[in-house]
Design a protein that fits this description.
This protein is an all-alpha fold. The chain contains 13 helices and no strands. Helix 1 runs antiparallel to helix 2, helix 7 packs antiparallel against helix 10 and helix 9 packs parallel to helix 13. The C terminus is likely disordered.
């Protein structure tokens, strides 16, 4: 199923940047519903177990891929279904890998960061380790859920900026980025407020244990203390990825985890004990704000970008500098 999942992901991403947002969303819903229905038939009715789940997923993804290819064969999209020239498959891989690596390494960093937190909790939580880890698991589910919305906005912004930048419209790039940053700021601020004031209530949706609920109420407000900064930061790093500036996209998307969060998680507990584990994240967000301002200032000086973000008209070749 993995090759099919990769192919479906590639096609839906292409549909997004081509502007077929509704059709892309419909394919996602189709694959999900087909997967649910096939799992019911193959697992519940036929009793195929794990094999049935794998087969159902593969069939659902094949159906989604088939629908996209038929749609392309009918000439509805800018990209063809199968008629890409052989040369197109042999060029551009360095750019693809350079632009794709930051996002891939970001997801890897999430796992590494969680593992680092668990290790430090073993050393600092003492007898309450099990309760603290259970509470941390709940906070991670809540943060992962909120991050999905932020990631969706970032993907939409990437398509908008990429299309307008390729068309040589820096004015629309600026408008899109402004909208994205504002939406990211409002979304992240709202999520922070909900998590801060509703921590115990949200924890009660997962467990009934008063100790775990109290622990979530203790650590979640600290973890999200600077979450409001994450929204604009994600949008700005997405902007650089959309205009093909791989080095700056990598700096802004990877530094939080690898340069700040993980090292702080390992070092702050030496002075703050268990609280240092939870304050590492907000501290990393504040440091990322400073790093972002430095990157934007240098970009404005070196390339003449307005606010370090918006290239002047006709400056698409500046990325080669």
């Amino acid at each position: 199923a993995s090759p099919l999942a990769f192919a479906v992901g590639l096609q839906t991403t292409a549909l997004r940047v081509e502007g077929w947002i509704g059709f892309m969303a419909g394919i996602g819903v189709l694959v999900t519903l087909a997967n649910i229905g096939l799992n019911y038939v193959l697992i519940a009715l036929l009793g195929w177990g794990v094999a049935g789940s794998a087969i159902g997923s593969a069939i659902a993804q094949a159906v989604g891929l088939g629908v996209v290819l038929v749609f392309r064969l009918r000439g509805q999209t800018s990209l063809p279904a199968f008629a890409l020239p052989w040369k197109a498959w042999r060029t551009g891989w360095r750019s693809f890998l350079a632009l794709g690596a930051p996002q891939s390494l970001s997801f890897l960093g999430l796992s590494l960061g969680s593992g680092t937190i668990i290790i430090m909790l073993q050393a600092t939580a003492g007898d309450s380790y099990e309760t603290v880890v259970a509470a941390y698991g709940i906070t991670m589910r809540l943060l992962s859920f909120s991050f999905l919305g932020l990631m969706g906005m970032a993907q939409a912004l990437q398509a908008m900026i990429g299309n307008n930048y390729g068309a040589g419209r820096p004015d629309r790039v600026a408008q899109s980025l402004r909208l994205g940053v504002i939406c990211g700021l409002v979304y992240a601020a709202s999520a922070e407020a909900i998590f801060h004031f509703g921590a115990r209530g949200l924890a009660g949706l997962f467990v009934e244990d008063p100790a775990v609920i109290a622990e979530v109420g203790r650590i979640l407000p600290v973890i999200v203390a600077a979450y409001v900064l994450a929204g604009p930061a994600v949008m700005i790093s997405t902007h650089f990825q959309a205009i093909g500036d791989a080095p700056r996209a990598a700096i802004l998307s990877l530094s939080r985890t690898y340069l700040f969060a993980i090292p702080l998680t390992l070092t702050l507990p030496l002075w703050l004990g268990e609280w240092g584990v939870w304050w590492a994240g907000p501290t990393a967000e504040v440091l990322m704000l400073g790093l972002t301002l430095i990157v934007l200032t240098q970009t404005a000086r070196q390339r003449g970008y307005r606010f370090g973000l918006i290239p002047p008209a006709g400056d698409r070749q500046a990325l080669a500098a």
